[in-house]
Amino acid sequence: MKLIVLDRDGVVNEDSDAYIKHPDEWHPVPGSLEAIAKLKQAGWTVAVATNQSGVRRGYYSRETLHAMHMKFVALLAEQGAEVDWISYSPYVAEDDSPCRKPGTGMLQAIENRFGVSLAGQPMVGDTLADIAVAKAKGMTPYLVKTGKGPRTLATQDPLLSGVPVYDNLLTVVEVLL
After folding, report:
1. Phi, psi of 133 (to 5 degrees)
2. From the candidates 9, 15, 84, 167, which is the catalytic residue?
3. What's the structural domain count of the chain?
4. SS3 letters across 20-88
5. CB atoms near residue 78 (< 10 Å)
6. Pair 142, 164: CB distance under 8 Å
7. What is the CATH number of the domain that holds 133?
8. pLDDT (tens digit, 9 = 90+) per residue, 98-115?
9. Among 7, 17, 24, 167, the one annotated catalytic
């Protein structure tokens, strides 16, 4: 099985330091829906793993988060594609939840859902937490320059050593395919 895990905010949709709090604020990164459609056409399973601490912070409800995901699903359907799985963590870092990236809980849930190991599979993210969790599961991490990608690169963190960097999700997908 060819399975890819994508972060959401900053990879699939535009990110905001003020949080994406409503479906009206959820806008795809240019080329991201096309990228997912290309993956699906090539037979890939596409999963999303996203930290959504805005739920715990009270910025939006689980129902609103679901509405954002339904907008994502509807926009993908217009491209003739679908996402196979969306995992989210509503927790903040102080909760010390194993589900919140860089904890591996969401990736474990994806492995359980599809009955496969994620080792060796690609994961695309824009933060150090995305890179850390991908490495923790033995995945191949890719960093994009969308969302928090430029800030992540600016840290020059040793965790980024050897991690391929691309302009956006579409450029990663073009390389993978």
Report:
1. -70, -35
2. 9
3. 1
4. CCCHHHCCECCCHHHHHHHHHHCCCEEEEEEECCHHHHCCCCHHHHHHHHHHHHHHHHHCCCCCCEEEE
5. 9
6. yes
7. 3.40.50.1000
8. 999 999 999 999 999 999
9. 7
Annotated binding site for Zn(2+): 99
The pLDDT tens digits for 57-75 are 999 999 999 999 999 999 9
**So what's the pLDDT on residue 165?**
98
Enumerate the known binding-site residues for Mg(2+).
Answer: 7, 9, 126
What the block records as the tokens of 122 is: 């690609």
DSSP-assigned letter for residue 9: B
130 is catalytic: no
Specify whether the CB–CB gap between 4 and 121 falls below 8 A: yes
Known binding-site residue numbers: 7, 9, 99, 126
- At 158 the pLDDT is 98
Could you tell me if 100 and 91 are in contact, meaning their C-beta atoms sit under 8 angstroms apart? Answer: yes
Told to judge if 7 belongs to the known catalytic residues of this protein, a careful annotator would answer yes
Amino acid identity, position 54 = G
| Cβ neighbours, 10 Å, residue 147 | 24
Q: 22: domain range?
A: 3-176
pTM over 0.85: yes
Measured distance CA(169)–CA(173) in Å, rounded: 6
